[in-house]
TrEMBL record:
PANTHER family: DEOXYGUANOSINETRIPHOSPHATE TRIPHOSPHOHYDROLASE, DEOXYNUCLEOSIDE TRIPHOSPHATE TRIPHOSPHOHYDROLASE. GO terms for biological process: dGTP catabolic process. GO terms for molecular function: dGTPase activity. The keyword Hydrolase applies. Gene3D superfamilies: eoxyguanosinetriphosphate triphosphohydrolase domain-like, Hypothetical protein af1432, putative deoxyguanosinetriphosphate triphosphohydrolase like domain. The lineage of its organism: Bacteria, Pseudomonadati, Bacteroidota, Cytophagia, Cytophagales. The keyword Hydrolase applies. This is dGTPase. Residues 64-251 form the HD domain. CDD domains: HDc (cd00077).
């Protein structure tokens, strides 16, 4: 049985230091986390990464940046409300100086980072990177040089695992607090496991790559996070709130964007929101607002507020089962509005996620990311393995890699996985526009400055 006192252990994650403590008289640890994330380059790059719709002429379409800020806002409210409940239930937490506001700040900071590992072009980008290693000849060439666990990582690019890698990396300076990092990790398992436990939400995807397994183990040991029966880790309970904040925002706000773009009509949207609001929906008052944008704004605000209340109640109901590992579902699947959210999801898939603009964006993403991976992977393979094919073109391509790219000391006898991971860092960290621009240049479609 996990214990809240242990789960909220203070200190900052550093693979080289166990149990590192920090003190700051002006800001709490989680407030410092929030500030570090806001000012970091990976977070800033989210302003030019697709959420659902392409990022062009419509300034009201959400990007990964605006989505992350909204999820963080909802997460703060969920965390603070859950914190009020925890402080009342476990008096010793308050005696230790833990406050509801601090728990809210932990969830807010973790939620702010929840998409930080996503590649360009959204989930289509994840699939494009995975498919390159699975199916492309210059992706498949690496399989014989690395371990099965490492190959599973490459064939299953996962934004959550990439995010964990970025947050614990030593070169980005974040060094988040233990609780924030654990709350971020919705899927505390590696890609390569013998068998998932049926019905466990936390094992639906994976949350760290094989070379970060020791990092998560260190984090789990410090916070007293326990293992599931198949050797994977249980979730930190606050990760359920981070997940719920994301579920609430993308369900409600993607529908709002879809209606704004004319993919879902306003009447159908009102009905979908009405299934959440029930008797709180006053059609006469709603119809008094003169514009569709105003109607959508009030519906969105009311729906999110209702979902927050229901989620907090579900957290309170299942909190002890989370600590024991007996509860492992999405909170939004066990609230009264679960069926309404499921219906919104079905409509969104049909009318929004499979709309022409979204499908065109996904198709472009596949082409761009496969093209970039092909160019760089081929050049690296020729340099270290098929050396008789190493050309002047390959040399020029490799000069486009970051200055700190680990080329020195490598040869055919060295496991190339660390190098390939850095290549993934480079590609997945690009913004949509930069990826497209670089693709055009390396393919000769456009010249620099053109």
């Amino acid at each position: 049985m996990m214990q809240w006192e242990k789960l909220l252990t203070s200190g900052r994650f550093d693979p080289k230091i166990s149990g590192q403590q920090t003190d700051n008289q002006f800001r709490s640890e989680s407030e410092r986390d929030y500030d570090r994330i806001i000012f970091s380059a990976p977070f800033r790059n989210l302003q030019d990464k697709t959420q659902v719709f392409p990022l062009p002429e419509h300034d009201f379409v959400h990007t990964r940046l605006t989505h992350s800020l909204e999820v963080s806002s909802v997460g703060r409210t969920l965390g603070k409300s859950a914190g009020d409940f925890l402080i009342k239930k476990y008096a010793h937490l308050g005696e230790k100086g833990i406050t509801a506001s601090e728990i809210g700040a932990i969830v807010a900071a973790a939620a702010l980072t929840h998409d930080i590992g996503n590649p360009p072009f959204g989930h289509a980008g994840e699939t494009a990177i995975s498919d390159f290693f699975r199916f492309h000849e210059y992706g498949q060439v690496w399989q014989k040089h690395i371990t099965p666990e490492q190959w599973e990582d490459l064939c299953n690019f996962e934004g959550n695992a990439q995010g964990f890698r970025m947050l614990v990396a030593q070169n980005n300076g974040l060094k988040l607090s233990y609780a924030t990092l654990a709350a971020f990790t919705k899927y505390p398992r590696p890609a390569y496991i013998f068998e998932k436990e049926p019905g466990r939400r936390s094992q639906k995807k994976f949350g760290y790559y094989s070379d970060q397994s020791k990092d998560y183990k260190q984090l789990a040991m410090i916070l007293g996070i326990e293992k599931a029966t198949n050797g994977c880790w249980l979730r930190h309970p606050l990760a359920f709130l981070v997940e719920a904040a994301d579920d609430i925002c993308y369900s409600i706000i993607d529908l709002e964007d879809g209606c704004t773009l004319g993919l879902v009509n306003i009447e159908e949207t009102i009905i979908l929101f009405g299934a959440i609001l029930k008797d709180r929906l006053d059609r006469e008052k709603l119809d008094s607002y003169p514009t569709q944008a105003q109607k959508l704004a009030i519906l969105r605000a009311m729906a999110i507020n209702q979902l927050i209340q229901e989620t907090v109640e579900a957290f309170e109901l299942h909190e002890e089962a989370m600590l024991s590992g007996d509860f492992d579902q999405a909170l939004t699947e066990v609230i009264p509005s679960a069926d309404a959210l499921e219906n919104i999801s079905k409509i969104s898939v049909k009318k929004i996620y499979r709309s022409k603009p979204v499908l065109e964006k996904e198709a472009a993403g596949y082409q761009v990311l496969e093209g970039l991976l092909e160019v760089f992977s081929r050049a690296l393979n020729h340099k270290y393995y098929q050396t008789d094919l190493y050309s002047g073109k390959d040399k020029s391509i490799l000069r486009l890699l970051p200055e700190d790219f680990p080329l020195a000391g490598l040869d055919a006898s060295v496991n190339p996985y660390p190098m390939l991971r850095v290549l993934m860092d480079f590609i997945s960290g690009m913004t949509d526009k930069y990826a497209l621009s670089l693709y055009r240049r390396v393919k000769g479609i456009a010249l620099p400055g053109a």
